């Protein structure tokens, strides 16, 4: 069958390439171009979709982990992006992690998940687990020691994951330590390369305050946060470079600055791009009204929308809105709104985007 499919390709130099060479060439393409290559022939489509090749080919947004409460217990579910009729790509709870099946997902970064065992678990003293649900591999992190001896009674600290497989196969975990005033005193950084934590004092403003659900993103080797001080702060994986940038919008642009939430909005959306860290390099790309973002919901509900993510491979702003928690996308290039699917009236407390990684990134784990 493979030979029959290959004969459908025009008699060019490409037709004489071996499968390994084709996959090697395809691995160098961006995701959008790779998806177009599926239409070259059935043989190419099968090569791209074959499980043996997924570790070499780039992946795109597959879906979201969303949490809810079921009979008073926090549960996590996976929702495919645009594929509601298909079974979930990732099954929860994580049965591949014995003793850690019911972990809470703290963060996701390029295919890896940072998880926290529930307090009632006998494994809670481990505090963090990093796993790759696509390859069913996982590693338990040692305790950072930032809580002292009384681990069980302390509230969880703000923690995030940093991982860029194009730079290194190793990941980093950031755990932010607070002072007596509840502001950031420093950060414990775990390196999977060394297997150890290191502490660095904060170089942000003394009043910088982070919350567990503070919006964040890891890019360009820096972990970025938006803060209630109307700033964007960032720190690198070594804890050596610290950035404080004024947000493009300040308190004068917000009706109630004390209840301002950069992710949960009830007003028009302004899309800014930071083009230069060294100066105030914010550039306004587009403004969208709440009405436009929510007008396709039935019944209309323009009260709020919850920002989820920017699609990693196209200029789509993904968000949830409406009584049925409708997953939607705003296409910045075409100035269009798309309804993707309803997540259900149960509500969405947290929605974490997930791009699978089939690379062997947790070689020291299980």
UniProtKB/TrEMBL annotation:
SMART domains cross-referenced by the UniProt entry: FBOX (SM00256)
Name under which the protein is recorded: F-box protein
Xref: NCBIfam families: F_box_assoc_1
InterPro entries in UniProt: At3g26010-like, Beta-prop_At3g26010-like, F-box-assoc_interact_dom, F-box-like_dom_sf, F-box_dom
Residue ranges annotated for the F-box domain, each copy included: 17-57
Organism of origin: Panicum miliaceum (Proso millet)
